[in-house]
Write a structure and sequence with these properties.
662 residues, alpha/beta, 17-stranded mixed sheet, single chain, WHD_DRP, globular, 12 helices
Length: 662
């Protein structure tokens, strides 16, 4: 917890009498207090002590906490460092997290902490160092309070947190809280605001109950607002949002057609941070009007969502190419989602999105190609869904023309998709060809970091690349002609796979030869509803030493499992709905010593389960609808870990129903 100390400071800490205290909570609290005493500046100590306002084990939202600190006046901007109040608060939060005053941190898509908790002992410390009840903050925490008669007792109130309070209205007297900087009425029953809300001129943060549908016009007076939150169905009048030039947080802008805000109201809101969602883009007239949003100047926006209405008249989509071109964001953007765009092509400004980490293209049904993405150095996740006109993914996808060769004397070409880890393609029903990338005579690496590939409802896809040097998880589902793409992806070059899931794939008779042998770290194998599958693998000779879970279901033509596939690493084995499965091999080596779950159901031709060496770890055994089964696995009498046993509808040699729960 303690860093950057001089020798004398460390000597003082070592000689502190707290180390003489006996083990226990008192000693721990004394050590924590020592760490608290070292916090600088003093405002950081105040910020920590304020956390005593929350219940123990409360999920603390980082942004909310910073807004509460800001309301107390503890976050002073640093113009010389270019830090505003929110950035100073973020620095404080990082310090407290690094010193373990916060724990259980949760992160968003970009790895940024969004929530955390405090250990109970740390919370006790926060309470002990809070000098008195904070008279500038009122948290109802779901309690019932007569606001009308009590608010006047809190004229110096800076924070009024009514989250989840059982109240239906705010009193008119709220306008007298001249010092109020934070007001939260989320999850209350409030449906309207009094007109006096417009007198809260110092208000910085306003969180409005989502069921409130009419935006109070009086809020236009609150020019110091930095953070405002409201529900998606809020009817916001035109001409109001554009006045909040200090705004850092805006949940979304829903562009109106005849009423509601216009997109140019975003023009001056250049302090907006983190996430911006813009809906109703079908109401933007053309590219010139779109440019008035001035997104290119909003350098603090990290996540941008652009959405058109799905069920709009088709004759209004001719200008959408220009609109999207006009919505060019700042180059610092990290996440981009484009939903229901009906233009023909994606904008050229995507070529310059050097900081983009994730892109999501949803419902762009008129686009015949995907954007040029392969050259983007930071892109880690691509999701493509519902692109009906997409027929081929080729050179334009890889962006080969936009990747320069290495510097200096090096002739080696730079990799394509150098940072991509996840690629998801879904509901591209007309996608036929996914071409190999141009590899410059084998010198160029493609997808060097790709770990997860998902293909769903790509019904006509007949080809796919064969070069995935880091692929760990492959999911292929609902594909009529999936046999060929699978054979390419699971080529002999692939050696890194740990998780394979195949479901409802046509044309698949078996896994490619050598696939199981080559991928020695394969842990999860799940094959479901592949009606043409007759066997798992050709020429299988080696055991799957890392396989921990094997699930095969509704594969009606599967006749046998290969010898060597059941090893001591297996923890879960599930076979169900395989009408022609006749043969289950015995386990290799020391037997199924790790098997915890065994399920065999609706396999009418199975005659035996020949696990001769016993199942010492078995906890769940379920055997159902196997009328030809003549014997159970050996050694069940020694399975002391069984907690659930279900055997039903077997041959006449067995009891019809047995259900045991220890």
């Amino acid at each position: 917890m303690l860093r950057s100390k001089t020798t004398d400071e460390w000597r003082s800490i070592v000689n502190n009498k707290i180390w003489d205290l006996p083990e226990g909570e008192k000693r721990i609290l004394s050590i924590l207090k020592l760490s608290f005493d070292e916090l600088k500046p003093s405002s950081l100590k105040q910020c920590f002590a304020y956390c005593s306002m929350f219940f123990k084990d409360f999920d603390i939202e980082k942004d909310d906490l910073i807004q509460l600190w800001m309301a107390q006046g503890w976050l002073h901007p640093c113009p010389d460092k270019g830090l505003d109040m929110e950035e100073r608060g973020n620095e404080y939060f990082k310090i407290l997290l690094a010193k373990s005053f916060f724990q259980d941190a949760r992160k968003d898509y970009g790895g940024n902490v969004t929530k955390c908790k405090m250990h109970d002992l740390v919370h006790d410390l926060a309470e002990s160092v809070s000098k008195s009840r904070n008279l500038h903050s009122l948290f109802l925490n779901g309690e019932v309070l007569d606001l009308e008669s009590n608010l006047l007792n809190f004229k110096s109130l800076r924070v009024l947190n009514l989250y989840n309070a059982d109240i239906m209205e705010l009193p008119i007297s709220i306008g007298k809280l001249k010092h109020l900087r934070y007001l939260n009425v989320l999850k209350t029953r409030i449906k309207t605001f009094p007109k006096s809300i417009g007198q809260l001129y110092n208000l910085q943060t306003l969180k409005i109950a989502y069921q409130l549908e009419e935006f109070p016009r009086e809020i236009a007076n609150l020019i110091n607002l930095r953070h405002i939150y409201f529900g998606r169905y809020m009817k916001v009048p035109s001409g109001i949002l554009g006045q909040f030039t200090n705004l850092r947080s805006l949940p979304f802008l829903k562009v109106g057609k005849e009423t509601g805000p216009r997109i140019e109201e975003l023009s001056g809101l250049n302090q907006l941070q983190n996430t911006l969602s813009i809906y109703g883009l079908e109401n933007v007239r053309d590219g010139e009007e779109a440019q008035k949003a001035n997104l290119v100047e909003k350098k603090h926006i990290r996540k941008l969502i652009l959405e058109w209405k799905l069920d709009r008249p088709s004759h209004n989509v001719d200008n959408e190419d220009d609109v999207l071109k006009g919505l060019r964001p700042h180059d610092s953007l990290e996440f981009l989602a484009i939903h229901e765009f009906m233009g023909i092509e994606f904008p050229s400004w995507l070529l310059l999105a050097k900081n983009l980490k994730e892109i999501e293209l949803l419902g762009c049904n008129k686009c015949e190609g995907v954007p040029v993405l392969g050259h983007l150095p930071s892109l880690s996740c691509v999701k493509i869904k519902s692109m009906e006109n997409l027929t081929c993914m080729g050179s334009e996808f890889y962006g080969d023309n936009h990747v320069n060769c290495g510097n200096g004397s090096s002739k080696e070409a730079r990799p394509l998709f150098p940072a991509l880890k996840t690629l998801h393609i879904e509901e591209a029903q007309n996608l036929i060809e996914w071409m190999e990338a141009p590899t410059e005579g084998g010198s160029r690496v493609v997808f060097p970091c790709l770990e997860e590939l998902t293909l769903i409802h790509c019904d006509q896809l007949t080809s796919a690349p064969s070069h995935f040097p880091s692929l760990k998880r492959l999911v292929i589902r609902d594909m009529d002609s999936g046999g060929m793409p699978i054979a390419s992806i699971l080529s002999n070059q692939l050696t890194t796979l740990t998780n394979l899931r195949l479901s409802n794939v046509g044309g698949l008779t078996c896994l490619p030869e050598g696939m199981l042998e080559n991928n020695k770290n394969l842990a999860h194998l799940n094959i479901h509803s592949c009606s043409e599958l007759t066997h798992i693998s050709e020429g299988f000779e080696h055991c799957c030493a890392s396989l921990s879970h094997l699930y095969i279901g509704n594969c009606n033509n599967l006749r046998y499992l290969p010898d060597g596939i059941l090893t001591s690493s297996l923890k879960g084995l599930s076979l169900w709905g395989c009408d022609n499965l006749k043969y289950i091999p015995d386990a290799t080596g020391d037997g199924l010593t790790s098997l915890q779950t065994l399920e065999v159901m609706r396999c009418p031709k199975i005659t035996s389960i020949p696990f001769s060496q016993g199942l010492p770890s078995l906890g769940v055994l379920s055997i159902e609808d196997c009328p030809e089964l003549s014997s159970l696995p050996g050694g069940l009498e020694f399975c002391t870990s069984i907690r659930r046993l279900r055997i039903t509808r077997l041959s006449s040699n067995f009891t019809r129903w047995l259900h045991i729960t220890p």
